[in-house]
Design brief:
Elements: E1 11-16, H1 22-30, E2 33-39, H2 43-52, E3 58-59, H3 67-72, E4 80-83, H4 106-116, E5 120-125, H5 136-147, E6 151-157, E7 170-176, H6 198-201, H7 208-222, E8 228-230, E9 233-237, H8 250-259, H9 264-269, H10 281-285, H11 289-318, H12 322-343
Parallel strand pairs: 1-2, 1-4, 2-3, 4-5, 6-9
Antiparallel strand pairs: 5-7, 6-7, 8-9
Length: 344
């Protein structure tokens, strides 16, 4: 039996570490959400975001995001934050420095979360996040959410569960504040939490919150209970089987959205690489000055396209699978719907 979803007002979203917009494409599949600002530092990805979503402002550096900077681009109301934070600090393919890696942006994410105080947040990362620093880093992440009064659900979802031929497992964290409705309330009306972000950002006190979190988890695990992190705020995991048989039609819905875009041909053409037949040194020597200049110009243009293609491959490699994100948004809508019924 499928739970009835109570219709919600359109949720206004900030998309952090946006990449090429896979997270936002996911909520466009699901429906009921509106991205009001992107944050992306890579210039190639910025170009794609401007092409796909020309009316949505982009703040390049996550360190620059404040309530003031958001207001400066016309964003004064935020319901949720989505973040595909950099994965190299946690990836099994790297050194896994986690909190000691300068690319770790969880500290900045929680800083923004405390300032903006949205009703919910979704974070995506690689499965290595769960085991980094002996699982201590992830426990610190759960503790930070709990300190701010968020309920947390998390789990691993694979691309092959939405019809892809590759596995591409990713951890998804859904955090929701069930205590009160934040719509139509200004940011500065909320008490700023005094949590210590060092537990997810490094520093001398990096494990202060983590130790308390571990002790609490150990106590509750011995009793066979869910880990209660703070005053009834619970963290629980969802299994991949939760989403079985729920991906039907997601790719078709994404396809219908893409076909509505007037610049779709330009999107597709940008993904192709023309061939270039290089001349031998003898053939180059036989060229006139004008032909040589044209040949060098063509070669320079070809090299520029090759460099762009490299950027494209890197962006695709880091991209979020929209259909996976859509499933997470569907789950979020059910959570929010249940909360709304309780408050009503």
């Amino acid at each position: 039996m499928i739970d009835q979803i109570t219709p919600l007002e359109t949720q206004k979203v900030i998309d952090l570490c946006s990449g090429i917009g896979g997270f936002t494409l996911g909520h466009l599949i699901s429906g009921g959400f509106e991205t009001v600002a992107f944050c992306e530092i890579n210039q190639y990805c910025q170009q794609l975001l401007n092409l796909r979503f020309p009316n949505i402002p982009i703040i390049p550096d996550i360190h620059d995001i404040t309530t003031e900077s958001l207001a400066g681009v016309g964003v004064r109301e935020v319901d949720g934050i989505i973040a595909g934070l950099p994965c190299p600090p946690f990836s099994l393919a790297g050194k896994r420095l986690a909190s000691q890696d300068e690319r770790n942006l969880f500290g900045e994410f929680f800083r923004i979360l405390r300032q903006v105080r949205p009703r919910w947040a979704i974070v995506e990362n690689v499965p290595g996040l769960l085991t980094a620093e002996g699982s201590g880093f992830f426990r610190g992440v759960l503790w930070e959410f709990a300190q701010m009064g968020f309920d947390v659900q998390w789990g691993v979802l694979s691309a092959n569960q939405v019809g892809a031929i590759h596995k591409r497992e990713r951890v998804w964290i859904i955090a929701t504040d069930s205590q009160s409705s934040r719509r139509h309330t200004s940011w500065n009306q909320y008490t700023q939490s005094g949590t210590n972000t060092a537990s997810v950002g490094g520093g001398d006190d990096a494990y202060t919150n983590l130790d308390r979190c571990q002790q609490q988890l150990q106590k509750t695990n011995k009793r066979g209970q869910k880990p209660c992190l703070r005053g009834g705020q619970h963290s629980k995991s969802f299994s991949q089987s939760t989403f079985c048989q729920r991906h039907n039609g997601l790719s078709q819905r994404l396809g219908r959205y893409l076909m509505q875009q007037s610049d779709l041909d330009r999107w597709l053409c940008a993904a192709t690489i023309p061939s270039f037949s290089r001349l031998t040194s003898r053939e180059v020597a036989a060229l006139t000055q004008q032909e040589l200049a044209e040949y060098r110009q063509l070669w320079a243009e070809y090299q520029a396209i090759r460099r762009q293609h490299k950027q494209q491959l890197m962006a695709l490699g880091n991209a979020i699978v929209p259909q996976c994100a859509a499933l997470i948004f569907e789950r979020l809508k059910r959570i929010l719907s249940q909360q709304q019924k309780i408050h009503d």
